């Protein structure tokens, strides 16, 4: 337990320090080689990599549509209900985010519009295709579907003789995805970025992945004009703010549900009550012993901090400084504090709102900014699948009036031709009026 | 003149090819050195660079507030009116973009919210501080002001004994900007990214600039966690689609107003009428001879294409393929075609809507995606100064129902602790009901 007000600023900063994430030069070089191969040899490169890296004896690139359609038959009724419910809630919440065009006359005769255009072709990456990670499909696929993107490609890796998990295929089907590529890592990213014989070229690539996927996404965004990616990805993290009446079992369970994600996950508890922190420590020990991923969770806990603060107000200041991906508020009444929330990816309010609700099924998106990016980056939302552009339409009289603003500015900036584009039109109007 | 349907696909692609833009390794190394200096030595590094690179005998970093307040006295009434009008129109159009939070119950007891948070500290870069470029201040500053950002820093370079132009200072004052840094290039970007004694650290940096500014922006975004930048910057471009009744003088003036921006600008004309193209060529020659920046414009024209297409429909297809920053439609009736607009930054509709209207004063933003980025990137808009995050609040009954979606998904993904965070709560509810 760290007593926030009794340690130096350096010790405070150290407690909020994230494990360093540095992509090795080697990862970059491997990605560049893979990207060059895929760019030149297309499908052949993907097939060769499937044999070499994924041990696929007879690799194929695209999942036949019947397999996608029939996947539902492999699911238990409970899992099917869960996927259907998650899909419906996520769809409902993101449908409410559908953007509306704006049309406004800024001054007489000058009409300005802001319009939304769906990004035409999007690529969705889902890690670990043979494991069941349907939530990752839903959190990306629903948005692509709602945007009306013309082309949606989903890529996921498959090893050995395994097949893509039925839960993934069923979730993809719900999202209207028919192009599913059995390929992973930097090769899959390159295939979607450049296009191959089988894989359509996309404009923007979404989704989490290992260091090769992350690096390949960065490289295609940096080197291919017009190519975009969703957001920088880092290890997952949660910060819990709990008062003296919070249930230590709930706090411990929330911290552990984050810690089991990966050894590099980070969990932080801030409380104004020493006993709450002590009891949470005991609850963590009890619960950890029963987890199947206890080794991973234990490693993550080693990077983590339980911090005693003076007040709940101070906890919100510390949280804003850290900028957590997930922020859980186990407070008697969180309402007075909600205005103090800053730099969080997604907030979970009250004793009965665990992070796993948002991870799977509440309706919010689980793709969130990590590693301090929550000061500037958004939670994944429907607008990430759109771009905006503007339109202006000016009448003759509108231009006549507006010329009094344009001409002095063009003159001041020494741009004759900018002024001339207005002047030739004013002259034409004058000739027309003669 | 290129006859689109009479040349090979390669020749078509070549006609739409943008001049290559490659940042040299040297530019990158210089930026890295400058960034390291500013990070370590702060203000001292900025002052040393002002002496060395900008020939400032007695450099200062911040403009005193009285100078900002008094700048209006140096302006002609015409220029003041122009700045006031541009400010008002840009403000009106961007105010209409203020986002609204979303609140939605996705299923009983499960409340989901999407909330907007202004990015707290933003940095605005304006090139050429001693030249009058007030439009660049307005196009960034109005948005920062409307967002309610707590900290707004404007940086602009000044050479020798010159002062920051009064038009810039006055535009900044209108936008409520009080922190103006007399510093340019990679040093200014580093100062805003790291913070110095005089320059506040910001979260996101906006604005155009030369290759050093562009490179420094990329480097700070890549290396400082949480740091963001507006969009990749490239040379400016316009594409005009004109029918047989379009006025060649107008077309020529629009092409030249783009060409005068820089030798690397690109201008393209698409018309279905050979005579229109020929007459435009003559008009370009006549108008070019009278321009003060004719050397620059002539160089840009050398990279450019006048293309004869079969139909206006085909022109829109070619335009979508190119993805122009500015798209001008000089058509008898553009309305039937507006649905075909794709991958454009800003669209100018009709004979009396020159690009210079949008560059300065119509109300739309002149910071636009270039170099093909218009397939994925937005025109600068108010949301670029905000981020979104989500909030969920779940009741006991809400969680009970939602658990039927969460638990099978957590089980399928093998994440015990995720399931346990729900189970400990269900158990507590059951105990409470006993």
From TrEMBL, chains A, B:
A GO CC term assigned to this protein in UniProt: cytosol
Any single GO BP term: L-histidine biosynthetic process
The protein's required cofactors: Zn(2+)
EC number: 1.1.1.23
CDD domains: Histidinol_dh
Catalytic activity: L-histidinol + 2 NAD(+) + H2O = L-histidine + 2 NADH + 3 H(+)
Protein name: Histidinol dehydrogenase
Gene that encodes it: hisD
């Amino acid at each position: 337990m760290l007593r926030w007000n009794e340690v130096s600023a350096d010790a405070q900063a150290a407690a909020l320090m994230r494990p360093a994430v540095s992509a090795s030069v080697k990862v970059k070089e491997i990605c560049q080689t893979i990207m060059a191969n895929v760019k030149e040899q297309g499908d052949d490169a993907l097939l060769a990599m499937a044999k070499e890296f994924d041990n696929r004896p007879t690799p194929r690139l695209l999942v036949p549509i019947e397999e996608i359609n029939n996947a539902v038959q492999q699911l238990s009724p409970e899992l099917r209900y869960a996927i259907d419910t998650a899909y419906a809630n996520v769809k409902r919440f993101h449908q409410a985010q559908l953007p509306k065009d704006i049309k406004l006359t800024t001054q007489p005769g000058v009409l300005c519009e802001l319009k939304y255009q769906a990004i035409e072709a999007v690529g969705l990456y889902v890690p670990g295709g043979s494991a069941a990670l349907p939530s990752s499909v839903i959190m990306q696929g629903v948005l692509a579907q709602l945007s009306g993107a013309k082309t949606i490609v989903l890529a996921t890796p498959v090893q050995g003789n395994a097949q893509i998990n039925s839960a993934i295929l069923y979730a993809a089907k719900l999202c209207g995805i028919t192009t599913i590529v059995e390929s992973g890592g930097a090769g899959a990213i390159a295939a979607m970025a450049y296009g191959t014989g089988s894989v359509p070229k996309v404009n923007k690539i979404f989704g989490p992945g290992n260091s090769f996927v992350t690096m390949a996404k960065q490289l295609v965004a940096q080197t291919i004009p017009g190519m975009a990616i969703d957001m920088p990805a880092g290890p997952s993290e949660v910060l819990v703010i709990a008062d003296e009446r919070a249930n230590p079992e709930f706090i411990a369970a929330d911290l552990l549900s984050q810690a089991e994600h990966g050894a590099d996950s980070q969990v932080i508890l801030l409380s104004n009550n020493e006993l709450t922190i002590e009891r949470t420590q005991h609850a963590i020990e009890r619960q950890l012993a029963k987890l199947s991923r206890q080794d991973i969770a234990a490693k993550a806990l080693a990077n983590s901090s339980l911090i005693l603060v003076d007040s709940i107000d101070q906890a919100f200041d510390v949280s804003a400084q850290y900028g957590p991906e997930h922020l859980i508020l186990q407070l008697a009444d969180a309402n007075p504090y909600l205005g103090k929330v800053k730099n969080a990816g997604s907030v979970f309010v009250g004793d009965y709102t665990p992070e796993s609700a948002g991870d799977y099924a509440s309706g919010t998106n689980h793709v969130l900014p990590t590693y301090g990016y929550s000061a500037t980056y958004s939670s994944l939302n429907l607008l990430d699948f759109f771009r905006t552009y503007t339109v202006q339409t000016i009448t003759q009289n509108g231009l006549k009036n507006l010329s009094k603003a344009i001409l002095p500015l063009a003159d001041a900036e020494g741009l004759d031709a900018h002024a001339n584009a207005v002047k030739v039109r004013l002259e034409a109007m004058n000739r027309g009026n003669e």
